[in-house]
Amino acid sequence: MTQRPSDGFGARLAYYRKLSGLSAERLSQRVPISRAVISNIENGRKRDITIDEMLALAWALDIPPVALALPLEQPNVFIETARGEARTESARAHSAIDWFITGKKPGSAASPQQMIAMTRLRMLRDYYSSRSQLTRAETAISKGDQSANWAAIVEEQKSRLRDLTEELTGLGIDLTYYKIDETGLPDGDD
Question: What is the CATH number of the domain that holds 90?
């Protein structure tokens, strides 16, 4: 039997909410979702969860979004992955979980769009890892730490960041650091 990905979303939400020691009321204070809506999600009365809601809930519960989106507790169940006029596609949950995490669709060769998306993800991880290493090295220098050649690490990471910035910009990635009240959207789109 094939399940929809949203089947069990409410039960997963309730499980992680309780595991976090939160009441529905306390969780609602952390997200832009009312206690009644959280209750309706958990009881299966609300199944049309938006990406905004899923991310807010996962963030507030300190879990990866995939833990709410897909049935980690039933890795061998079949879930519906696509429904068209002529057919419905499905995959085992563990394959969909792996795809959700890695971006690699099970049983198929990488498509051009998949390769572009995976390249963007890999480069973004590299970029933020380099930024973190740079910050760590600069902090070590400012504290007088001499346990490593921090100056060389700073130069290496700055060079790496310049290269990554150029490549990411070429891929259409906006690396602008926005203030908390800025949306990053063109005027009129917020």
Answer: 1.10.260.40
Flag whether 33 is in a domain: yes
Residue-wise pLDDT for 26-68, tens only, equals 999 999 999 999 999 999 999 899 999 999 999 999 999 999 9
- In the sheet that holds 88-92, the strands lie side by side as 2-3, 78-83, 88-92
**Token pair belonging to 81:** 């992955």
Residue with tokens 């990635």: 173
Tokens of 89: 């596609």
Cα angle at 52 between 172 and 123, to 5 degrees? 30
What is the four-CA torsion angle of 9, 15, 21, 26, rounded to 10 degrees? 20
- Condensed to tens digits (0 to 9), the pLDDT of residues 3-31 reads 888 899 999 999 999 999 999 999 999 99
Indicate if the alpha-carbon torsion angle 55, 60, 64, 68 is positive or negative.
Answer: negative
User: How far apart, in whole angstroms, are the C-alpha atoms of residue 65 and residue 57?
Assistant: 8
Q: 61 in a domain, yes or no?
A: yes
